[in-house]
C-alpha cells in the first residue's frame, strides 16, 4: 500500500491509502477526490483525470507514454508535470506521492 496526497487547486489536501496495482485515478474516484472526473473509467480515452505530479516525484512516476501524450493534448492547462492519473500504477515506490488537481478538467 502507498499513501497518495491529492492537492486541489484551492490547496485542500486529500490523503488516501492506495492498493498496489491500482491506479492513482481509481483511488481518487474511490475516495471522492474533487476534480478527478475520469469519464472514460481509466481507458486513456479522455483527459478528465489530468493531474500535475509534484516535482520531486517526476523521476519516480516517469513521463507519459505516446498514447497518454496524445490524450493530454485535450487536457486543460498542460505542463511538463502533466500526467493522466489513470496511467500511473500504484506501487510501494509511490508511497508518499503528491499530485495536484488542475482548476478544471477537459
Automatic annotation (TrEMBL):
Residue ranges of domain 2Fe-2S ferredoxin-type in the record: 2-105
Going by the UniProt record, its keywords in alphabetical order are:
2Fe-2S, Iron, Iron-sulfur, Metal-binding
Q: Does the keyword Iron apply?
A: yes
Cofactor(s) required, per the database record: [2Fe-2S] cluster
Q: Which InterPro entries match?
A: 2Fe-2S_ferredoxin-like_sf, 2Fe-2S_ferredoxin-type, Adrenodoxin-like, Adrenodoxin_Fe-S_BS, Beta-grasp_dom_sf
Pfam families linked to this entry: Fer2 (PF00111)
Identify its protein family: Belongs to the adrenodoxin/putidaredoxin family.
The name under which this protein is listed is 2Fe-2S iron-sulfur cluster-binding protein
